[in-house]
Design the sequence.
């Protein structure tokens, strides 16, 4: 299965190097991202639901 790469999302920096969308310069190459947790009140309670581990999906 080929892994399709998209343009880098302008302005989205990300240090999650284990995500297949993370680039060598620590940016996001997903077409769009979704940040989840409707009940978040702190930074640490938010998370990117677009995250996909390298080699798993
Ligand atoms: S999909 Fe989410 S976790 Fe993955 S590189 Fe983009 S912003 Fe980071």
Sequence:
């Amino acid at each position: 299965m080929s892994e399709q790469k998209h343009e880098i999302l302008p302005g989205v920096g990300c240090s999650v190097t284990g995500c297949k969308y993370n680039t060598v310069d620590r940016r996001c190459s997903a077409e769009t991202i979704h940040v989840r947790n409707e009940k978040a009140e702190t930074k640490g309670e938010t998370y990117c639901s677009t995250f996909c581990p390298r080699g798993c999906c």
User: Anything to note?
Assistant: The radius of gyration is 12 Å. Residues 12, 14, 16, 19, 21-22, 28, 30, 33, 48, 50-51 surround iron/sulfur cluster (CB under 6 Å).
